[in-house]
Amino acid sequence: MLKKKADDVGPKPTPPKPSPPKNDDEEDGALVSDGSDLISDPDTIGTIVFPEDLEITEPVIDTPPVDLPDIPIIVPPTDDPTDSPDDPTSPPEEPEVQQRFLWCLDNGHGKFTKGKRSPKFEDGKRFFEYEFNRDIVKRIMEQLDEKGIKYFNVVPEVDTDNFLKGRVDRANGHQSDIPKLFVSIHANAARSESIDHWANPPAKGAETWYYTGSNRGRKLAAIFQKHMVNYTGMVNRGLKSTRSLYVIKNTTMTAVLTENGFYNHKKEAAELRKDAVRQLIADAHVAAILEVEKNGL
Q1: Nearest of 290, 286, 267, 251 to residue 73 by alpha carbon
Q2: Contact 46, 238 (CB under 8 A)
Q3: Are the CB atoms for 126 and 120 separated by under 8 Å?
Q4: Looking at per-residue confidence, does 155 or 39 come out higher?
Q5: 24-35: buried (b, 16+ CB within 10 Å) or exposed (e) per residue?
Q6: What is the pTM of this model?
C-alpha cells in the first residue's frame, strides 16, 4: 500500500520540532540518502522526459539501459545583437511571478559524509559532492533573492553528515504562511571498484526522483528535469520514482531530488568542476522554480 503524501491527500499533520545538526550515519543506518545509494546499477534509465511532452507515464527503474545520444555539456552562445529589441535600453521582460510557495532547498550531504567524492584528477584534486551541492544552492539562492522568491536553506552547515532526520525535521517544522516545496540537490555516482576508481562502465547525465504515487511530485520532477536537459545538454536519464529515499519519503510537502551529473564519470566530473557549467545547473533549477511560481503545481 502506498504511503499517502500529505500534500496529495489533504491537511498536513503537525510538523515535528527541528533537530540540531549532528553526524547521523549510525542513527540512519541503512536509510537511503540519494539515487546513487538506491539502485545497484545507476546505468538504468527511467522514463525519458522530452521537453515538449510533459505527459509522464509511471516510470520503471529496472529496465535495461537505453541507447541515448551523447550530448556534451555546452554553454549556449550569447544572443546575437541583431536580434535585440528596437530599444536597447529596455530590459527583457521577466515572467510574472506570484509568491505561491516557499522553497526548501536541501544541500545534499555534508563534509563528513563517507565517500561522495571522485577519484583524483591529474592535478591531484577531487570533486567533493558536498561542496558542489552547496555551490549550486548558493547560486540558486542569489537569483531567488534578486527575483523576490521565498526560500529556506535547509542545511547551511558544512561540517555535518547526511543529517537525514534533522533536515527533514527542519523542512517540516519551518513556519510558512504559504505552501512549501522541497528540492534536494545532488550529484550522482555509478558503481565502481572503489572511490579511488572511475566508474567502469561509466554512467552520465541528469535524472530527477520523486515519491512513488505522488502526482504532484511527478509533475514537479518533470519540470526540473525538462529545464536541466534544456540548459545543460546533459544526457536525459528521465524521471525515477521510489518509496525509499528518506528526504522525499518523510517530508510532509511535495518533494523531489535532482541528480546533476556523475562525479565518478571522469569527463562529466571535469565539466561539473567548471564555473560556467555549475551556473547553468543553477539557472536550470531557477527556471523550474519560476515556472512553478508562475503556473502553480
Answers
A1: 267
A2: yes
A3: yes
A4: 155
A5: beeebeebbbbb
A6: 0.71
- pLDDT > 90? residue 189: no
Strand order in the sheet with 180-188: 151-153, 102-107, 180-188, 254-262, 206-211, 236-242
What is the b/e burial string over 36-71, where b = at least 16 CB atoms within 10 angstroms of the residue's CB? bbbbeebbbbbbbbeeeeeebeebebeeeeeeeeee
Q: What is the spatial distance between Cα 181 and Cα 171, in angstroms, rounded to a whole number?
A: 9
Mean pLDDT of 98-106: 92
pLDDT tens for 142-166 read 999 999 999 999 998 875 666 789 8
Q: What are the structural domain ranges in the chain?
A: 95-114+122-297
Fold designation for 95-114+122-297: Aminopeptidase (3.40.630)
The count of C-alpha atoms lying within 13 angstroms of the C-alpha of 46, restricted to the half-sphere facing its C-beta, is 28
